Amino acid sequence: MLSHEAQANNNLKVIFIPLSSKSHMMPLVDMARLFSMHGVDTTIVATADNAEIFQKSIDRDFSHGQSIKTHVLEFPTEQVKLPVGNETNTDTPRNLTPKIHEDFVIVQKQIENYLLGLGELEVDCIVSDLCYHGTAEAATKLGIRRIVFTPASVISRCAELWFEQHTAHTEVESDSNKFTIVGFPHKLEMTRSQLPCWMRKPTMFGRIMKVLNDSSRRSYGAVFNSFHSLEGAYEEHYKNAFGTKCWSLGPVSSWVNQDVSDKAERGHKKVEEEEDEDGDLFKWLNSKKENSVIYVCFGSVNKLSTSQLIEIAHALEASSHDFIWVVRKNNDKEGEDEGFMEEFEKRVKESNKGYLIWGWAPQLLILENKAIGAIVTHCGWSTATESINIGLPMVTWPLFADQFFNEKMLVDVLKIGVSVGAKEWRNYDEFGSEVVKRNEIEKAIRLVMENGKEAEEMRLRAKSLSDDAKKAILVGGSSHANLTLLIEELKSLKLQRLNANKPN
Fold this sequence. Notes:
With about 500 residues, the chain is an alpha/beta fold. Helix content is about 50%, strand content about 15%. Helix 7 packs parallel to helix 10 (about 230-240).
């Protein structure tokens, strides 16, 4: 029979609970896979539809001898009257958004019931999305630790806490006046219009964020998809501000998604007919010169109005650079020419200048292609870290959530990005009133893609960060060391718990 110490060393069991949103889900699933690669018995809790998005990778890991599995929860489709296939917020129509929130409450209760139904030796630690604040109390009842995960950057989490405690943004005369975020390792200026609505005035979501932050303080610590050379100064700031530990374990995607199949399928339930489409895409991309193509993508949930799509299209044509543009259908009825995008796609296809992808794109494979020279991005943190890992400079275009804070890191701190000048934060399911004009978009694209001292220095900084990202996940690197230390710490905590419960 194994001793308590042997059990602690050989059977550390960690449950990972991602939120039903791809931007939250995929980095935490990558992190769960990372733990299992390092000998941890890992379980991912998800609804059936969400599990299908990543299950092929889990099955591959399991076939390679890793102890990893998925525990499937029943999605309350009938209970909330939500159509099948709307388990994430990626394509959910706006009128159904309240039902997604209703679903979240029910699923969170199912998660808590599942956790509390586990036996004493079935789980040693919970790593759950920031939004599942109830898991902090469940962990306490089980006598184990909860670690909080957020898909955002460390700097954005520090900023969210800062706005709970400071009022500089309320003291400027208007939403367009700049204020300084004091007390940060770098001097950062923003305008009030770039802040989330709940930071500008009291809202229900602001009260929810306070609950989430309070549960983070009660947790053992936090894990981030980042690395020390990227956000080391803000890791220390986070520890001081929240009073808990934190570990940067990134970039997690490049660490676990080294198989071509993992890269090709990440975040998507691939169907057979898409295989041919991907073949056409990479045939086109491989025909282009090195660093000659700009990749344009605004993430899985962002919506752009028809008038904004038209401005982007004109800017891309005027920039004289080849491009790949991932476009999401927006169902926007503005009275604009609804056939514009179809005509645009036909025109750039005939000229061989551009390639449009409608919907999901195999982003990891696209970014690492030698033809890609830069990216136009919404500053979602997963895309930012994936681009940094490759060494790509960025045109930054934040829209919602933490993205304006991420832009500050990319443009003002790291100096690997050029802003299009976006001024308005909006909700993810809204078009917003701001339309960035084609000349501003074109100017930013030319700056990152064309020769010149500023562009060259930006590319050199991006390449240096890429080298740091690759070193971070190697033995002796900062993220590798953090993961090793965290696992050993959790084993030690398990051993203490087993010894405390051992009969005298």
